Amino acid sequence: MTTIREKKLSAMTGIAALKTVSMVLIFGAAILVSGAIIYSSVRVLRGQSVSGRPSTN
User: pLDDT for 16-48, tens place per residue?
Assistant: First the structure.
């Protein structure tokens, strides 16, 4: 049988774990998106279009 103290501790730990997981997901998504933008920008600046063909500028 679990006591009230154990329930409170597990509730606090669960919330802390969910906060940590959500922060990791948010920052991971932000890093992934910014990396994709930088990669795309570098390709365009080097003279290649997104399709892989050289630009005709």
Answer: 788 888 999 999 999 999 999 999 999 989 886
Q: Count Cβ atoms below 10 Å from residue 23 Cβ, excluding itself.
A: 10
Residues in the chain: 57
Lookup result for tokens 């050289």: 54
Q: Where are the alpha helices (DSSP H) in the chain?
A: 4-45
CA-CA distance, 47 to 56, in Å (whole number)? Answer: 9
Query: HSE (CB half, 13 Å, CA atoms) of 25?
Result: 6
